[in-house]
Write a structure and sequence with these properties.
19% helix; alpha+beta; Structural Genomics Hypothetical 15.5 Kd Protein In mrcA-pckA Intergenic Region, Chain A; 15 strands; elongated; 32% strand; Alpha-Beta Plaits; 6 helices; nine-stranded mixed beta sheet; four-stranded antiparallel beta sheet
Amino acid sequence: MRIAKYISNAGYCSRRDAEKLILDKKVYINSKLCTIPGTNVSYKDKILVCGKILKLELKIKLWKFYKPIKVICSNKDPKKRKTIFDILPKNLPRLISIGRLDFMSEGLILLTNNGDFARKLELPFSNILRVYRVCIKGEVKVNSIKKINLGISIKGIFYGKIKAKIEKIKDQHCWLIFKLHEGKNREIRNICEFYKWTIVKLIRLQYGSIKLTKQNPGQIEEINRIPQDFL
């Protein structure tokens, strides 16, 4: 595999950042300086990055994490906001999030030690189920739910493969369940904005066959076996 991919899969940094380290002359292969990001390496090669020997973890590992609100899923944030990686336990290896939740959303985020595995599960062809619970302030018309389930276009983007339903109505709030597979950027928020629904809470409950159980915001739990629908 290419050296930048090796560094990323070893959990040191992203592939793009790995390419920058190579161009900055901070990567060595078998004690020789590497200057070309496209250089191929094998598992037998000795890779040194910024003075640290990297070990590639061949076994894919998976964790589920309850993302609190007001944290982001990126490794770095120009606005200096808190990230999920700031609040994860320090004894964990470098992890990669599988997909993201936006700043004010909460709930299930999956984390892995393998970049290729993360990218595979994010791609639309993986057809992974995502389930969300959304609290809306005010009235939600049944006819609007029917239109969502048929598929709608918003600002030139078509949102299909969605199943929405009203879960309950209480104290002038309507709780909705959204089930979708594509997971386009801010999909639920864009739909709610289109219908002028004010979101009070947006919680991801499920990703594939993995569900939030009794976790509290900020808690993380390793999954002992990779689910069959992820393979």
